[in-house]
Amino acid sequence: LKFAPSAQDCAAIALTDDRPGRMLRENVVRLGIDNIRIIKKIESLSRQLLPLLKNYDQQVLRRALQTLSLLTWCSVMARG
Questions:
Q1: How far is CA 49 from CA 1, 8, 16, 21, in A?
Q2: Residue 6: strand, helix, or coil
Q3: How far apart are CA 12 and CA 26, in angstroms?
Q4: Which residues contact 50 (CB under 8 A, 6 or more apart)?
Q5: Rounded to an integer, what distance in angstroms lies between the CA atom of residue 25 and that of residue 7?
Q6: Residue 70: what pLDDT?
Q7: What is the dihedral sign for C-alpha 80, 38, 42, 40?
Q8: Does residue 70 contact residue 64 with C-beta atoms inside 8 Å?
Q9: What is the pLDDT of residue 72?
Q10: Contact (Cβ atoms closer than 8 angstroms) between residue 13 and residue 36
Q11: pTM of the entire structure?
């Protein structure tokens, strides 16, 4: 028996179904992140970022979440 959930499965488990959660889910799946701890780290950092960007356009939020997802994933992978 092999347990190997896809990035989509892990994102569905780890992320909420609100708008930021859906945006993060797209990023996580696109990057192929299948580690729930990394996904939760991205979600935690995004919750800190959301209040700072609430007065900006949704495109700014989308781009910020994309960048946050990529940078968090890179920093975790670089540490090994």
A1: 40, 23, 16, 13
A2: coil
A3: 11
A4: 20, 61
A5: 9
A6: 96
A7: negative
A8: no
A9: 95
A10: yes
A11: 0.88
